[in-house]
Specification:
Helices cover 65% and strands 5% of the residues. It has 637 residues and is mostly helical. It has a four-stranded antiparallel sheet with strand order 1-4-6-5. Residues 102-203 form the MobA/VirD2-like nuclease domain.
């Protein structure tokens, strides 16, 4: 051992050798995430969109060629063999990590043996190789192909070094020069797999790869191949712009296309749902009748069991069964309790109770749907105005806001949406177009009541209060403008306009109170449900496998995870209620202040004969029906 140490020291100090310790390369740490780069480009685009003239903007958005590296995917042993066959065209020479031309069959045989050894040692390793394609948008000539091949090789060695073996091959079919690269993900020095710590580190790796590839293309072509690696915003929104143009054209040709399509679609959906629910009701009723006839022959008189006739009685019996099921038969139990326990554990009686429960729930759904269908038909007949998008005053911001919503789906980047929220707020605060559309927004908030879904939660209620606050601010601003202009114009006309805004505030106040009542009831339910889940979770973590019911044995871990997930979501809803209660009280207080401020004006209006014919048709016809706070309120831009 001492000999080895002295030898290494002499070797290290020998002037004839340039001694250097070789260490494996690590994946780059995140310095400047791709999401930030993308946001920077979007911000630049937004600035150009709102500040430059049309001619300057069109000249600025001339397309620039983007550097392209496609990740075909991670490959298993079998997939990598097929990909290598395609890359080498069945036995041709390929380039390796030392830029040597090697026989493809030899490399494929070595890699296949290596992959088999890895899988024998660790069966969890599935992906053994990575398949990338580097391409350029140029003609297929010898000069471009040589520049591409050299640039790809230099990019890989600069980023990965020589630690990971790879093969590469140029393809020139379809008049599109590109290079296929298969990277062996096993490090030659450490035998560890090429992995990324997070999604951000993966994005950063590919960004570095594209940036390096771009630089080498420029250098190897002596400045002829000039590509860009900036996020291509213009390409991303091209389809969205086309869609906007189509919508504007359709709106000009048919002004009623928006709400008519909405009404027909929802009415058809309601009809089909009602029909299917009635079929289910008939099937449940027939099954319940059969069960009752069996109970009369066997247990009806002996066990003195009475089927429930309403929902309250049903819930009482189900609760009693749930409690009795947890009890065990002991000598201490009285005779009546023992008999009752035997009755409740009867499969026939259980089936009868749960069938009754399903029947009551189905009947309730049918009643709610039929009421919503009736209200929707009334609204459809009375609705004559469409949601007019006034693009003359705020066209640029509206288009940008629409793109923002679409970009969040395309790129799935929450940080981009959060950073660009100021653009959305800027659009919402545009006073030229929003006041004229405030009444249409209010109508659409009511239309969401008819979404025919009986599910709701705190997050949807919080969204309603947010949208409601926007309308309150608009109404307050418009009424202030009316008060300021009373002296300079016709007081009668201004008071008429003001009464319309007051009607809007009254309806908003009623809706907010209903929603807040629902939120409080929802909170009580969440607290009760959270306690039940906590008890179930405690029982599951402490119980043995034999303590569980037969149908739950072998699935304890799965049930525990499901309980934890449900409990986590309930806690988030409860946390949302805390912020909701503050915002709701503020919004309701704002509405109350608006009523107090305008009390004097309303007294004057009552004494004015001209105000007897105040046009309330905008709201009274569409909002007289009580609104279910369980529904989903949402504003549609």
């Amino acid at each position: 051992m001492a000999l080895e140490k002295s030898y290494s020291k002499d070797f290290e100090s020998d002037e004839l050798f340039d001694y250097e310790i070789i260490k494996p390369k690590k994946t780059l740490k995140i310095q400047y995430t791709y999401a930030k780069r993308y946001y920077k480009e979007v911000e630049k685009f937004a600035k150009n969109l709102t500040q430059l003239t049309q001619e300057e903007f069109m000249r600025l958005r001339e397309p620039q060629k983007q550097v392209v590296i496609k990740n075909i995917g991670n490959m298993t042993r079998l997939h990598s063999k097929r990909a290598m066959d395609y890359t080498a065209k069945h036995g041709e020479l390929v380039r390796d990590e030392f830029f040597n031309e090697v026989n493809y069959n030899d490399i494929a045989e070595q890699w296949n043996e290596q992959f088999e050894r890895i899988l024998e040692k660790n069966s969890r390793v599935k992906n053994c190789a990575l398949h990338l394609v580097f391409s350029i948008d140029e003609n297929c000539n010898e000069k471009n192909l040589k520049a591409l091949e050299l640039s790809v090789y230099q990019t890989l060695t600069n980023t990965l070094g020589y630690d990971y073996p790879f093969i590469m091959k140029l393809h020139a079919h379809q008049n599109n020069p590109h290079a296929h690269v298969i990277i062996n993900k096993t490090n030659k020095i450490t035998n560890k797999q090429l992995r990324f710590h997070s999604k951000d580190s993966c994005k950063e790796f590919y960004h570095t790869l594209r940036e390096t590839f771009k630089d080498y293309l420029f250098a190897n072509s002596k400045g002829e191949l000039q590509y860009s690696n900036t996020p291509n915003i213009y390409r991303a929104i091209k389809n969205i712009e086309t869609e906007l143009d189509a919508l504007e054209k359709q709106a000009r040709n048919n002004k009623s296309f928006r709400h008519e399509n909405y009404f027909y679609k929802v009415l058809g959906s309601a009809t089909s749902q009602i029909e299917s629910l009635k079929k289910r009701e008939n099937a449940l009723s027939d099954h319940l009748d059969n069960l009752k006839s069996l109970l009369e022959k066997t247990h009806w008189e002996k066990e003195n069991f009475t089927p429930p006739t309403n929902e309250k009685e049903l819930n009482r019996q189900l609760k009693e069964i749930k409690w009795l099921n947890k009890e065990s038969l002991t000598p201490k139990k009285t005779y009546k309790k023992t008999q009752k326990l035997v009755v409740c554990k009867s499969p026939l009686i259980k089936d009868c109770l749960y069938t009754t429960k399903k029947l009551f729930a189905t009947q309730k759904k049918i009643i709610d749907l039929e009421k919503d269908y009736k209200d929707l038909k009334v609204l459809k007949e009375e609705f004559s105005k469409d949601l007019e998008v006034n693009l003359s005053h705020s066209k640029k911001r509206f288009e940008l806001y629409t793109r923002l919503k679409s970009m969040s789906k395309v790129f799935i980047s929450k940080s981009i949406v959060k950073n660009l929220e100021k653009i959305a707020l800027d659009f919402k605060s545009d006073r030229h177009s929003i006041p004229q559309r405030a009444f249409e927004f209010f109508r659409y908030m009511n239309y969401q009541n008819l979404s025919l879904t009986n599910k709701s939660n705190m997050f949807l209620v919080a969204k309603f209060f947010k949208d409601s606050a926007l309308l309150v601010n608009i109404a307050r601003f418009e009424m202030k403008k009316i008060d300021d202009s009373v002296k300079n114009s016709s007081p009668q006309g201004n008071l008429l306009d003001k009464q319309v805004w007051l009607n809007l505030l009254e309806h908003l106040k009623r809706l907010e109170e209903e929603n807040y009542c629902f939120a409080k009831k929802r909170k009580e339910f969440l607290e009760t449900r959270a306690m039940e889940l906590s008890k179930d979770l405690k029982f599951l973590t402490q119980a043995n496998e034999n303590d569980l019911p037969i149908y739950e044995r072998g699935q304890r871990d799965k049930i525990i995870k499901r309980c934890e997930k449900s409990l986590n979501f309930l806690q988030k809803e409860l946390q949302c209620f805390k912020t909701l209660s503050k915002s709701a009280s503020i919004a309701l207080e704002n509405l109350q202040n608006n009523h107090q401020i305008t009390a004097v004006t309303q007294d004057k209006q009552e004494n004015t004969n001209a105000l007897k014919k105040i046009p309330l048709k905008d709201f009274n016809k569409t909002t007289n029906e009580p609104i279910n706070p369980n529904n989903n309120y949402e504003m549609d831009f």
